[in-house]
Design a protein that fits this description.
The complex is a heterodimer of chains A (349) and B (508). Chain A is α/β, with parallel strands linked by helices. Chain A contains 15 helices and 11 strands. In chain A, β6, α7 and β7 form a beta-alpha-beta unit. In chain A, α3 packs across α13, α5 packs across α15 and α7 crosses α15. Chain A starts with a helix and ends with a helix. In chain B, strands 1-2 form a two-stranded antiparallel sheet. The chains are: A alpha/beta (349), B mainly alpha (508).
Chain lengths: 349, 508
């Protein structure tokens, strides 16, 4: 059940706390620029949440530093319920390896999870690489060139771990700021691969501009959902019992158990998801009001219909579930820290 | 042209001009005009506000409204730039360089007439190129990569020499300062903070809009207060104002070659994802002054300095739609908002839209076309009341201009600290003006810095890895020729003129 705790919260919610937000203007802070994935989700939610709270919601885009500036703006806002926003949990966790102190669970009041991220490895339509096997064949002859945003991005965490599990040598090209820059890079053939969120690249996969080669997920975590999604049907999965990580470990004579554990840990990290959050130390009554309002909106048929029309996935989870997943993701990150830090260092040279 | 495309184009045209659908672009344009008359507010902000209101709409009215908003109402931002030295948005900033001096010379009508004509015709050319490119635009977008973007940025920077004013050294220092300002914030490659001094405000980088409002609008207010000038135009009565709308329109046709070149610059730069209209305007301005025989009037009310950026800024809307429609990749902020709106309405720009909803694509294009013309024509009809503002006492205007500039600075990102930033740059702008330091190179360099920096890194890295061959790319070579032309032709011409003068002297 996705909202077990929410039922209790509903019962305990104080209508008076929500009364204080009626007629007010709330800031909804978005960690990327207008038109981006988070922005589109935010604008989808905006009218529904405004109606639920009987308030005006203004979307504010703070795109600098891969979402860190937006996250810091939410954390530092007054805990009066008038500032909420959306953060990328995996991105914030990754940034902690790079000196950031922001923690998605402890520095914010988590209100709900909008959806889990689903990360995929993509190549260009005319790259000459049609499958993961072909990619690994190419990797046997030369390093694979991978385009990423910058040396502090969440994909910097995924790349070295994936490469290690696949036994693939690679070089990074940093500086592709924005999803679109990376998509263009792989389509033009400047890089072989990019690591992207499936939801942000869905339309490019659908129209054949790019081709998914690998789902960075475990069977338990996202594989079932992935199997239901025709866009990634038949695309190999990294983690889980039958995942590519295990197969590659078996071939290379490495520990199969270890490979599975690492692949699943990576999946739990990159899947941590898009969270709806408010500043920390939000008074209990306000927190309950916002949790209920956000939860109600995320489960509403109206929002689901709008999301279906826009081909946007909504897979809500309550705050308790989201926090538990963040804790698991944070633990996974500890294992990867030395490898990721070395990669960040290399990317800056 | 493909018969399917012709049918779709005609059907799109019919739909846009049929009753009651025509009401949508008309209403959207009028609202956008009113909205964008306030600095800092523009049609992108309006699009953001309208997205949730249009959820229940069918795709056709959505295309009609958002098509009109993509390029709609840029002219109003130009009008405030010409009249008050206040750019409505970053892309209007370059308009004030020669537009406002024309107002001060009592030629506001000519300036507005020229801006309106250049805008309408520039956007028409942009749309024409967009339609012509529909069958091949996917390939055309992919021809341009980091090396081409890098060379475009360098080309833009080489125009600095032309706008440096009396002292090239001062111009270069100002440009260097502009680059330095743009480097404040996070390094786009390493994700490390630079020159932020631990402040949260600087982590976001310094936005161009408060810098522009400070350097030009606030600096002008200080100048007006210090100089004690009675009115902006120097005249108290309308009949004493010189110039006419017709004169402004004629200027576009008198400089038709410049108009075409500037529009093409706008289209090409518009097609580069993530690059705003301000870059197109500044590059076109630099090109206009670079290629002018007599460039002494630039920055002092030369109509060519108004025509070129206006044509480029509006032509770029057609260019920005090229990657948006071809690949679903936005060319700028306006098209990014359009993309978001279309996605939320279940329309996926890219192959699907082009193959399955070509008529809707043309509805979008014709709606943009109609909106640009309505804006310009309405703008022309408002010339007299707008020009009258130049005859109002500055003591009454200054508080209004100051309020508009401050609101514009804050409104752009919703940060009160941007008002402080604008004030600091206001003081700097006044000092630069007073001591004859050119402000334009600073702004050009600032607007080109990100394009230059990211693509320099990418080009070097991709060349190092053997993923590209810089020297075998035709567009790079073409841009290299243009850069060399910009750098050395003025020197060569000066030499030739000096030799000719010497010969004449010897003969006489």
């Amino acid at each position: 059940m996705l909202f077990p705790a929410l039922l209790n919260v509903t019962a305990a919610a104080s209508p008076n706390a929500c009364e204080t937000l009626k007629g007010e203007t709330l800031r909804w802070i978005v960690p990327n620029s207008p038109g981006g994935g988070y922005d589109t989700y935010s604008r989808l939610l905006q009218p529904f949440l405004a109606q639920e709270l009987e308030a005006t919601i203004v979307v504010e885009n703070r795109s600098a530093a891969g979402g860190l500036v937006a996250a810091a703006a939410i954390r530092d806002a007054a805990p009066d319920g008038k500032t909420i926003g959306i953060i990328n949990a995996a991105g914030l966790l990754a940034a902690r390896l790079d000196g950031s102190t922001l923690h998605p669970a402890t520095d914010f009041t988590v209100l709900a999870r909008l959806l889990r991220n689903r990360t995929v490895l993509l190549t260009g339509r005319e790259s000459g690489i049609d499958s993961l096997d072909q990619l690994l064949g190419v990797a046997g002859r030369r390093p694979i060139v991978i385009g990423v945003r910058d040396a502090g991005s969440a994909s910097i965490v995924a790349v070295p771990v994936i490469a290690e599990l696949l036994g693939m040598d690679y070089v990074l090209v940093t500086g592709y700021v924005g999803n679109t820059a990376r998509i263009l890079a792989v389509v033009r053939g400047e890089v072989d691969l990019i690591v992207q969120n499936l939801d942000s690249t869905r339309r490019f996969i659908e129209d054949g501009t790019v081709r998914p080669l690998l789902q960075v997920t475990g069977v338990e975590a996202g594989g079932e959902a992935g199997a239901r999604d025709p866009i990634v049907a038949g695309i190999p999965v990294l983690g889980g019992e039958t995942g590519v990580a295990q197969q590659r470990a078996r071939l290379a004579g490495r520990s199969v158990e270890q490979a599975k554990k690492r692949a699943d840990s990576l999946a739990s990290l990159v899947d941590a998801g898009r969270l709806v959050v408010a500043p920390p130390a939000l008074p209990d009554q306000l927190r309950r009001c916002l949790e209920v309002a956000v939860g109600t909106v995320l489960r509403s048929p109206g929002l689901q219909a709008a999301a279906d029309r826009a081909k946007l996935r909504i897979e809500p989870a309550d705050a308790a579930n989201a926090r538990a997943d963040i804790r698991a993701a944070a633990e996974a990150l500890v294992d990867f820290a030395p490898l990721v830090r070395a990669t960040m260092q290399r990317a800056r040279q | 042209m493909d018969p399917v495309m012709i049918d779709a184009a005609l059907e799109g045209l019919r739909l846009v001009f049929s009753w009651p659908y025509i009401l949508y672009p008309l209403a959207a344009t009028l609202i956008a005009m009113l909205f964008s008359a306030a600095p800092g507010l523009n049609s992108s902000t309006l699009m953001a506000l309208l997205i949730p209101l249009t959820y229940a709409w069918e795709p056709l009215p959505v295309m009609l409204v958002f098509g009109a908003l993509v390029g709609g109402a840029t002219f109003m931002g130009s009008a405030t730039a010409i009249l008050f030295n206040i750019p409505g948005k970053a892309s209007n900033a370059v308009t004030l360089l020669d537009g406002y001096p024309m107002t001060r010379q009592g030629q506001a009508k000519t300036a507005i007439g020229c801006a309106a004509a250049a805008s309408a015709l520039g956007s028409t050319l942009g749309i024409g190129v967009l339609i012509a490119m529909l069958p091949v635009m996917r390939d055309a977008v992919l021809v341009l990569g980091p090396p081409e973007y890098l060379m475009l940025a360098i080309w833009g920077l080489t125009t600095l020499a032309a706008v440096a004013g009396d002292s090239l050294i001062k111009g270069l220092i100002a440009a260097g300062f502009g680059l330095q300002l743009a480097f404040i914030g996070y390094d786009p490659r390493t994700a490390e903070p630079r020159f932020t001094f631990g402040t949260e405000y600087l982590q976001d980088g310094i936005s161009l809009v408060p810098v522009l409002l400070g350097l030009f609008a606030l600096a002008e207010i200080i100048d007006l207060m210090v100089s004690g000038r009675e009115t902006l135009s120097g005249q108290r009565r309308m009949q004493d104002l010189s110039g006419s709308v017709l004169e402004g329109i004629r200027a576009v046709f008198r400089n038709f070659g410049l108009f075409i070149r500037s529009s093409l610059i706008g289209i090409v730069i518009g097609a580069i994802p993530g690059i705003g209209g301000s870059v197109a305007g500044f590059v076109a301005y630099g090109h206009a002054s670079q290629t002018a025989r007599d460039r002494s009037r630039f920055g002092h009310g030369d109509i060519r300095g108004l025509l070129a950026p206006e044509a480029a800024s509006d032509a770029k809307d057609g260019g920005a739609l090229v990657p948006t429609l071809a690949l679903g990749i936005p060319g700028g902020t306006g098209t990014a908002m359009l993309l978001g709106a279309l996605t939320l309405h279940g329309l996926s720009p890219g192959r699907e839209l082009l193959n399955e909803n070509l008529t809707l694509v043309f509805v979008l294009i014709w709606s943009l076309f109609l909106s640009n013309w309505i804006t310009s024509l309405l703008g022309l009809s408002l010339v007299n009341p707008m020009a009258r503002l130049g005859t109002i006492r500055t003591s009454r205007l200054i508080p209004v201009i100051l309020a508009l500039a401050m609101i514009g600075a804050i409104q752009y990102r919703g940060l009160a600290a941007d008002a402080v930033c604008a004030a600091v740059f206001g003081l700097l702008g006044y000092l630069m003006k007073r001591h004859h330091w050119p402000r334009v190179p600073l702004v050009i360099a600032m607007s080109l810095a990100l394009l230059l920096e990211t693509n320099l890194h990418l080009t070097l890295r991709l060349q190092e890895l053997g993923r590209i061959n810089f020297w075998s790319r035709p567009v790079v070579l073409l841009l290299l020729v243009l850069i060399l032309f910009n750098l050395f032709l003025p020197l060569l011409l000066r030499k030739v003129r000096a030799i000719r003068a010497m010969r004449r002297g010897l003969r006489s």
